[in-house]
Design brief:
Structural class: mainly beta
Number of strands: 9
Order of helices and strands: EEEEEEEHEE
Distance between the termini: 69 Å
Strand content: 35-45%
Largest sheet: 4 strands, antiparallel
Radius of gyration: 19 Å
Length: about 160
């Protein structure tokens, strides 16, 4: 098990199955004008986590830039660390929160092709202080999307 140190976070990656095929494509009469992902989290680890996500097509090929696109100026997605007991150095209370990640136009345009998502977490101790991890510590993520969809209705007249 890789352990995070103050100068080097531990990074873990997993690929999950997702299906956004019901969302409009660029060729349809509807389009997504803007969208964001909402990541609800519960973090019982005494470590913070910088999260990133990457959409993949059915062949596991990348469709767009990483989410959030920090190179384009979007803020990092950070999960807060659980509260740590100063005596035992174990987590005492989980951190809970919601990360709202705005999608770029390129990411929105490829959503309906997404079949898999790579989830990447870089774990880091907070304030460079030592912590202890228990077998019962965890991170739980729930993801939802919030999209504005515009539809073109052809009125052929009567």
């Amino acid at each position: 098990l890789e352990i995070a140190t103050p100068n080097r976070p531990a990074t873990y990656t997993d690929t999950i199955s997702v299906d956004f095929s019901s969302l409009p494509s660029q060729q349809s009469n509807s389009n997504i004008s803007n969208g964001e992902l909402k990541i609800y989290y519960v973090n019982k680890l005494p470590l913070s986590a910088q999260m990133s996500f990457r959409m993949l097509n059915e062949f596991h090929q990348p469709l767009s830039t990483s989410i959030p696109d920090t190179a384009a100026g979007y803020p990092k997605a950070i999960l807060d660390a659980a509260q740590v007991d100063s005596t035992t150095l174990f987590s005492s209370y989980p951190a809970r929160g919601v990360m709202q990640i705005q999608l770029t136009k390129d990411q929105i345009n490829t959503l309906n092709q997404t079949r898999f998502m790579v989830v990447r977490a870089s774990l880091q101790t907070t304030n460079d202080k030592p912590v202890r991890i228990q077998a019962t510590d965890y991170i739980r993520l729930t993801m939802s999307g919030d999209f504005s969809i515009q539809s073109n209705v052809n009125n052929k007249g009567n």
